[in-house]
Amino acid sequence: MASAHSSGFPTNEELLEALAAQARPMRLDGLLRVLGLARRSKAELENALEELASQGSLLRLRGGLWTRPENLKHIMGRFSALRDGGGFVTPMRPAEGGEQNRDSRLEFSGARDVYIPAAQTGEAWHQDIVSVALTPGAARGPSPEGRIVAVLERGQKEIPAHAGHRTGRTIFCHPADSRLPVNFSVELEEGATPPQPGSLVLLAPGRRLATDLWTARIVGDYGREDDVAVQEELVKLNHEVPRDFPAGALAEAQALPAGPTPEDLQGREDVRNLPLVTIDGADARDFDDAVEVEDRPGGGWLLRVAIADVSHYVRPRGNGYAGALDAEALARGNSWYFPRSVEPMLPEALCNGLCSLRPDGDRLAMLAEIPFSAKGKPGKPRFAVVVMRSAARLTYDQVKACMLDEDPQALAALRENPRGEEVIAMLRRAFALYAALREARRQRGSLDFDLPEADSRLDEAGRVVWIGHRQRHDAHRLIEEFMIAANEAVARYLRDMSMPFLYRVHPQPDPERLESLFDTLEATGMENLPPRPEASAMQAIIAGVRGTDKEFLVNRLCLRAMPQARYQPVNEGHFGLASQAYCHFTSPIRRYADLLTHRALKTALGIGVGALPAGQKLLRISDQINRRERAAMACEREMDRRMGCLALLPRVGEHFKGMVAGVTDFGIFVELADMPVEGMIRIDDLGDDWYDFDPRTMSLVGQRSGVMWRMGQSLEVALAEVNLGRLEIRLMPLELPKAAQGNWRGGGKTSRKPAHKGGAKPGRTSRPGGSRSGWKITSPGDDSGKGGGKGGATGKARRSEGGPKRGSKAGGKGGTGTRGRTTGNNSKKRGR
Q1: DSSP assignments along 684-709, one per residue
Q2: pLDDT of 186-233, one tens digit each?
């Protein structure tokens, strides 16, 4: 390179040596002094540094600083890509043994994730183990910033892809996950049957041909994408969902008996005479809880909750136990649920057999007995290890038909059970207790998010023929109320016994999120909001919209404003349930946290289960199961989006009613009314106008027409396009809302506070839209539906009060689809 510069200009090696000798990054002026160069050499020096940076030998930092990558602090971690090209690196370290992730060589360090801008990802792919150079002074916002300098290990050895066009024996394939920035060239083996265009294939990457092109070979052909089973397989591959159990865990499971042995029953209370019943969904197979209610003399009730005693069979390593089942259960963290399948936390011999509380056999259980007053106030609980036999396996709908609808046929069918009359009488007492518990929890300030869940029907070929909302009723809520009561009773008992265990905590929303929530609620037209955003007001807000057309929207906005519930050894209470102490105890078949709680409870009762994890060991376990819970929820959200896309694929061109569920500077998210599916109206499909985006009120206002788009608006849309590969559902408005009247704030009411406080600025103007694809858009007094082009690039809004933050892993501009489950979901499967 020296020959490329004027006489006396330093070579590449001399430039690198000069920077290596400096204790800190240098600017151009400082380097000129260090190198003894005149200022007229500044441009030549900058060109030389840029060339070295393009080779990876130098890094250019914020503020015009230059340094060698070796001079920066480095970390190792796993890269999680975002769809915009950037991503995050979760720091990792060599495992110390014991509680680690499925890669036995590494464990998560607990340090903050590092944000990687799109231009700094190098050649890393999603899930790769990478080395990151941390950028000095770039720790603004929630994450430090860095640059990937090396890929240490490919995280994905096999990659799902879509088969594309074929030229001779060569097929070009595109990754099914849009976060992977490469394509693949596949050379078919002689005699191999080529996959059909568009089918899902599994590839093993080979060598790099170009920056964005690699060779690969096909290791699996799954067929057409409109099959739900194929979509499930894709999600499992994308998220590295655990599948086959290790040989050690299977051997340990196979060595267990088919049922309780006489030795197992020693020292246990016999409650086989009690009419304990399981109440679950019609397709459930792992029954881990049973309930029974008795009247108490003088008033009130006695609630019994029996939970499968998984800890009797799944033992940690030590005391003669290999611990293979326990290690695998921790690695999985929880069961992973899909529309047609489950990847369980425990092998089927346990989760659907030995531990499942079936009505046809004796089962080991942990029993919680909790007395309640007539007003639902709990008394002193009692816990015991028992042997039980379920009196009936009931479904939610069966209980509803019998007890809520008093259906004669359903009651007659239940009476055919040998203990049918006894069960019916018990259920009447159970519903009386449920009403008292629900009212007591309401009075103490608990938040009741009753958001509908997605439900679907498939045909024989595995195609989605219907998607809608699963019906929820008081039979579901009864079991939820009893599980909450048992979880609280156990948490209080273990807390008072000073046992090391994991609480389920749910902190209050932080002030900034509350401020943003109240701004958005005001923008939807809600009245009578408190003058100051307070968490204590959320219960009244939710109750105030119950039964109205705004119920779903307000519930979801409140839910999104709250932090995610998590497991941790330190008690912080559960804000959503207004509980001072809460844990998970009722689902040890499908949640590792519950299994730990059972061991702590047995220890408190004087039953030996070995040493309990405590201190840093317990903290590492909590980190692991929190990550696995989030990963399982991400799978469910992606699967929901895919189901929504599959349901709408054959319905392009149809009209749907919906509600504006989100407003951004690049478009509007619309939740369809009759199905849990969300699509987007792009900014350039909103009519021929320029739109101002206000991130505080989450609204778009047309500069010329005054047309306003805001949260909570009802509208009718046409389905314009479904892109299954990108998980995008594109909608077109069939009409525009009325123009805003004056300085609109909160549905025409006076604003609670100035629109832009503290120097926050409104969003930039977004580009004009234009009606296309033949959809007619009408606007009051305006022909904006006629013509109009795309205009310039969408302006990005500056962050204002309550606006989005850079660096947030959740959300972003990702694909649209069915609504995902969230922390406050009432589902028994997930729990609070």
Answers
A1: GGS-SS-EEEETTTTEEEETTT-BEE
A2: 999 888 888 988 888 999 999 999 888 999 999 988 888 788 988 999
Q: How confident is the model at residue 137 (pLDDT cuts 50, 70, 90)?
A: low
Amino acid at 533: P
Q: Which residue has the tokens 């009419």?
A: 275
- Parallel, antiparallel or unpaired: strands 269-270 and 382-388: parallel
- If DSSP codes are grouped into helix, strand and coil, which group holds residue 668? strand
Task: Write b or e for each residue in 331-352: b if 16 or more Cβ atoms lie within 10 A of its Cβ, otherwise e.
Answer: bbbbbbbbbeebbbbbbeebbb
State the Cα–Cα distance between residues 342 and 437, nearest whole angstrom. Answer: 32
> Which residue from 559, 794, 816 is spatially nearest to 700, judged by alpha carbons?
794
Query: Which residue is it, tokens 């294939």?
Result: 201
Distance CA 600, CA 497 (A): 10
* Token pair belonging to 653: 């061109």
Of 665, 687, 674, the residue nearest 777 (C-alpha): 687
For residue 114, the cross-strand partners are 89
pLDDT for 600 beyond 90: yes
CB 161, CB 175: distance < 8 Å: yes
Q: Are 523 and 746 in contact (CB under 8 A)?
A: yes
The Cα–Cα gap between 664 and 709 comes to 10
Strand 691-694, strand 678-682: pairing = unpaired
First to last CA, the chain: 63
* Residue 437: CB atoms within 10 Å: 24
Q: Which of 747, 763, 761, 752 is nearest to 795 (CA)?
A: 763
pTM, two decimals, is 0.77
DSSP-derived secondary structure for 578-597: TBSS----S-TTTBHHHHHH
Question: What pLDDT, in 10s, does the model give residues 14-35?
Answer: 888 887 777 677 888 888 888 8
Helix (H, G, I), strand (E, B) or coil at 242: coil
Q: How far is it, in rounded angstroms, from Cα 509 to Cα 559?
A: 10
Q: How many helices (H) and strands (E) in the chain?
A: 17, 35
Q: How far apart are CA 692 and CA 677, in angstroms?
A: 27
DSSP 145: B
Residue 815, C-beta contacts closer than 8 angstroms, at least 6 positions apart: 83, 178, 641, 726, 727, 728
Spatial contact of 367 and 357, defined as CB atoms under 8 Å apart: no
What is residue 785's predicted lDDT score, i.e. its pLDDT?
A: 33
CB 568 within 8 A of CB 502: yes
- CA-CA distances (angstroms) from residue 639 to 131, 155, 229, 233, 809? 31, 22, 11, 10, 19
Kindly tell me the burial class for residue 323, based on how many C-beta atoms sit within 10 Å of its own C-beta (0-12, 13-18, 19 or more).
buried
More confident of the two residues 539 and 138? 539
Q: How far apart are CA 44 and CA 5, in angstroms?
A: 8
Q: What is the arithmetic mean of pLDDT over 561-573? A: 94
Q: How far apart are CA 684 and CA 233, in angstroms?
A: 35
**Cβ-based neighbour number of residue 659 at 10 Å:** 19
Provide the residue type at 137 as one letter. G
Sequence-ordered strand ranges (E) for 85-199: 87-94, 106-108, 114-116, 129-134, 146-153, 159-167, 170-175, 183-187
